[in-house]
Amino acid sequence: MFVAPGDREEILERAVRLADSSSSPEGSPGPAAATPDAPAAANAGAMAGGKSGIPAGAHLDAGLERLARVGSQAEILEIPDLPRLRAVADACQRCQLHETRTRPVFADGTPDARVMCVGEAPGQREDATGLPFVGRAGQLLDRLLTAVGLGRDRVFICNVLKCRPPGNRNPLPEEIEQCSPFLLRQLELVDPAVVIAFGTFAARTLLGSTESLGRLRQRTHLYEGRPLVVTYHPAALLRNPGWIRPTWEDLQRVRSILDGDGQEESMEHPEGSR
User: Which residues pair with residue 119 across a beta bridge?
Assistant: First the structure.
């Protein structure tokens, strides 16, 4: 999707206005059943029962039920397709978060996307809707992606964790360990050309790094053999509108990689992956 330079500037200006008008950051206390933004709502069927093939809450056979309770990482990594992976994730009881979640948040977007967007974990609105990146942060993400010729219907959006940590606390190491096979299998099945890590937590988790977001943003990394670009989380942009243009510049790097103009020699492997 081509976006003319003048249109890009207009989209960025609208994104800044959206951030400036925000009265509270994404994930702060608010209505428990907030309505998702239009693009997310339009794609709910795609991942919940359209392209993914299995509606949320569909009956599982005994084998998938066992995987949802006690399946090993190796077994989850052998699940053959996204519909069955989603079914297992929706019924997952591998960590304590299943006791407090409202809805698991598997993904949104298209299963054959060239770009995978990865965030930290569902917030309150995501927990209520079952969709990642909704509300003002989701609207802002949609506008930024559109500004580089991508839309929500052309990317695959997911989180490190599929269930909301209570009170939006930071995910615990054991929760990351139990949930990571789902993200790894999503990556394998979608097979994107580039991965975007939104926010410090997602970037550090995927790269096994303790570096600051500012330092991680300075270069393109490799994750599971794919280019990975680090940028700010949309919720942070709502609090700091001055970061919107640097985020757009990060997404321009993604666009360059997709167009074959990326600097492969500048890519760095995550710690311990060589």
Answer: 159
